[in-house]
Amino acid sequence: MNYLSLIVAMSVLVMTQVLGDDNVHVFLSYESGWPECQSFTTGALKRVLAKPGMPGIIDLELVPYGNTKYHEDSDTFECQHGSDECEADVLMSCVMYE
Q: Which member of 5, 26, 32, 67 lies 3.0 to 4.6 Å from 88 by CB, making a disulfide possible if both were Cys?
């Protein structure tokens, strides 16, 4: 595991808390266009969720968030990893919250 993946994993652990319903609530804010986030979600997170019984005890909240800047003068958004990341973040948000 490289250094950046370790930081992401530790951030998830720090934002994780056990509430009264005995489930582990995990809040994961990620950038859809960042290779390290893609690696974490399709690697470590996927492996944890594939373990027997894990999906039943984890309440996972995914928040697609890119390093996005809003340009008021042109009413446009600019994502750190390009327009594809902006589109992916919007699509993921719509699918999860619709």
A: 32
The percent of the chain in helix, strand and coil, each rounded to the nearest 5, is: 45, 25, 30
* CA dist., res. 55 & res. 13, Å (int): 16
Q: Are the beta carbons of 37 and 9 closer than 8 angstroms?
A: no
Judge whether residue 74 has pLDDT over 70.
Answer: yes
Instruction: Please give the DSSP secondary-structure letter assigned to residue 81.
Output: T
Separation CA 31–CA 72 (nearest Å): 22
Nearest to 30 by CA among 19, 21, 22, 39: 39
Give the whole-number percent of the chain exceeding pLDDT 70: 77
